[in-house]
Design a protein that fits this description.
Glutaredoxin; mainly beta; Immunoglobulin-like; 5 helices; single chain; about 300 residues; four-stranded mixed beta sheet; globular
Length: about 300
């Protein structure tokens, strides 16, 4: 992977250590210096020693991200502690395919606080697939932190892309398996999420929310609450849309992947898809999804 260093943008003396893993999450361990921001027009003291934060990380909590419809969920951590008090997160995207990285896009990430732990989402407008450098400026009270990460955006996604018709899967429901404990690993399952097959939802003429997740076996705190978000959205919108949870595993002892995971080209979880009334993919939401983010996406397909 090529190095991403922007000497003219990084805080002087900052050392950036990158380790990217293209699995269910990308995590970057960083030694970061914080520059204090004074109020009004006051300038920072150039002789002040920067404050260091060890083991500061930014996590891109998804993979298989399309460059054409790039939803990039961001989680800020200091070690194992989730940073919850950030006031603003601004992103600058640099094209790393050039000899000298070039600034292509800038924008502010959207914060979703109505999740078990808050996360941020950015939708950069980028012209091609490949590795992109993101400079993340995070404001916490009177302090602004800057860090650099690298993400990979793909030309073609493994799972159904926005605008495509996904597989009309015949997932198990209470009609074929009345025992909810065999349909989901959730400790307190919502029976309403297991009433329809994906095929039935696609033929209904209504938008649909379909979440592939395993709440009982999820290994990270950012994925286990996703099914709860789907239930909350169902309570908010009722029968204006279909709401389906597909458990990642069809057998729990030993763990055996559900057939729908292969049908949809999914190798990680959780993934939540929003379909329009014609059954086509309107949004691909990898990783954390809050009730408010679901509401924002459903509004775009006419569910209010």
């Amino acid at each position: 992977m090529k190095a991403f260093t922007l000497k003219n943008l990084a805080t002087e003396g900052t050392e950036v250590k990158e380790k990217i893993s293209y699995l269910s999450v990308f995590s970057v361990a960083i030694i970061l210096f914080l520059a204090a921001c004074g109020g009004g027009e006051a300038a920072a003291d150039p002789t002040a020693t920067p404050q260091t934060i060890n083991n500061f990380r930014v996590v891109v909590a998804s993979d298989d991200i399309s460059y054409q419809y790039p939803r990039i969920p961001l989680i800020l951590q200091d070690g194992s502690d989730w940073i919850t008090g950030a006031d603003k997160v601004e992103i600058s995207a640099f094209d790393l395919s050039l000899n000298e990285p070039e600034l292509v896009w800038q924008g502010e990430a959207i914060r979703y606080n109505d999740y078990a732990l808050p996360y941020w989402v950015v939708y950069p407008d980028l012209p091609h697939a490949g590795e992109w450098g993101l400079v993340v400026d995070t404001t916490l009270g009177g302090t602004t932190a800057r860090l650099q990460i690298v993400v990979e955006l793909v030309e073609e996604t493994n799972s159904p892309a926005v605008g495509e018709l996904p597989p009309a899967s015949e997932n198990r429901t209470v009609a074929t398996e009345p025992d909810l404990a065999k349909l989901t690993s959730a400790a307190e399952p919502d029976p309403d999420l297991y009433q329809q097959t994906i095929a039935e939802a696609m033929a209904s003429g209504k938008p649909s929310v379909i979440s592939f997740a395993t709440p009982g076996f999820c290994q990270t705190r950012y994925c286990s609450p996703v099914v709860n978000s789907v239930s909350e959205a169902k309570e908010q919108f009722g029968d204006a849309a279909n709401f389906i949870h597909v458990e990642v595993y069809k057998e729990f002892n030993p763990l055996v992947l559900a057939d729908e995971m292969a049908q949809w080209g999914l190798v990680t979880e959780p993934w939540t898809f929003v379909l329009d009334g014609n059954g086509r993919i309107a949004a691909r939401l990898g990783g954390p999804v809050s009730p408010q983010e679901l509401a924002d996406v459903l509004a775009k397909v006419g569910v209010n």
